[in-house]
Structures are given as structure tokens and as C-alpha cells.
Design brief:
This protein is α+β, with helices and mostly antiparallel strands. 34% of the residues lie in helices and 16% in strands. It has two domains: 37 residues, no CATH class; 71 residues, no CATH class. The chain has three helices and four strands, in the order H-H-E-E-E-E-H. The longest helix has 18 residues. It is elongated and about 80 Å long.
């Protein structure tokens, strides 16, 4: 981050160096500039919480699937797709509405009231 070969005034706080290109908006310069700033590298010096975030993400998605019913907004889902960079994405995003499910305690109470 403080390498004078890469940065002009490396010890000064200049957030604009990450926002704009120094050569009036040339695409190559912006791409090159973006690769200079990597807050966490790869390998041994990678992000210390990356494994924790993957576990938390899996738990969160599992709980959302378990605790909500997901309803589609509209009548029909548009399944058109497009390529973006190296991955395939939906051309029209899928919009869902979460509806809470009854908890086990509420469900048992409801069943007991009906019998």
C-alpha cells in the first residue's frame, strides 16, 4: 500500500486515487489501478475471516429457507439469461416475497385448538 513505485505520495491519505484514473478515464489505467489495491491478498495472507463468512452465509441461507415461504411476485418467471464476465446470470432478476411460517409451538397450539 505504501510503495512509492506504485503511488504518488504513498504516505498521504488520498481516497480519490481509488476513484478516478490519473490519465483522464482510460479503461486500461482503471483496470490496472484496481488491481493495485487489494486489502487482503491471497494464500497465507488472505482474509482471516473468509471461512467464518462462508459458514455464516450457509447458516443464514438455511435459516431463511426454513423460516420463510418464498412467493413469486407476478404470475410468470422470466427465465431469459445473459453472460456477464465469466458467469451466466438472469437477464431479469427474480423477485420473491418472504412470508413467515408458523413456528412449531404455534403449529402445535393451532392443531390442539382444532381437535
Amino acid at each position: 500500500m505504501r510503495d512509492p513505485d506504485f503511488w504518488e505520495d504513498p504516505l498521504e491519505f488520498k481516497p480519490e486515487r481509488f476513484l478516478t484514473s490519473s490519465r483522464s478515464g482510460q479503461e486500461e489505467e482503471r483496470n490496472e489501478q484496481a488491481m493495485k489495491y487489494l486489502p487482503f491478498g491471497g494464500g497465507r495472507r488472505g482474509c482471516p475471516a473468509s471461512k467464518l463468512s462462508y459458514m455464516a452465509l450457509g447458516t443464514t441461507i438455511g435459516m431463511m429457507v426454513q423460516c420463510f415461504e418464498w412467493r413469486i411476485i407476478g404470475e410468470k418467471v422470466n427465465m431469459d439469461d445473459r453472460y456477464k464476465c465469466f458467469s451466466k446470470t438472469m437477464a431479469h432478476p427474480l423477485t420473491l416475497t418472504p412470508v413467515t411460517r408458523l413456528s412449531n409451538l404455534e403449529l402445535k397450539t393451532l392443531v390442539n385448538l382444532q381437535t
